[in-house]
Amino acid sequence: xxxxxxxxxxxxxxxxxxxRFETRSxxxxxxxxxxxxxxxxxxxxxxxxxxxxxxLAKHGYTVNNLPTGAVVAIAExxxxxxxxxxWTDGYELEFRKLIYYPEYEFGDFTxxxxxxxxxxxRCLAEPIQAKGQQxxxxxxxxxxxxxxx
Length: 149
What we know:
Blueprint (H helix, E strand, L loop, with lengths): L1 E7 L1 H6 L5 E4 L7 E11 L1 H5 L3 H7 L11 E18 L2 E4 L3 E4 L13 E16 L6 E5 L4 E4 L1
Parallel strand pairs: 1-3
Antiparallel strand pairs: 1-8, 2-7, 3-4, 4-5, 4-7, 5-6, 8-9
């Protein structure tokens, strides 16, 4: 299965269903299942900023208990949309899909970037340790290994 490594707290925000769009500088043609891998890095400052801090707290997380180096969720990558405009209350993606607060605080929706839409997100009861990689990579959920793609 394809996987994407995301630094914390953003990987957990996806896993707990609070973040539906992963923003990247590059598009993807992949659609379908994708493993959400929490990298080893934690952006501690972001964890203390609102609304990230209170959103994590609502689900029992703090900067001190975020899983790292592990697959934390399985989602379906439904679409990849280019961010095209900003407006007073949020951002506009291609085809008039609008991003409102607090979702727009959980990514970089600067026009020209890409928003990967995640649906059917399933948080794993126990994170599965795995070594992450840059870009999209192949994760073997049975052997818990990864290979570059």
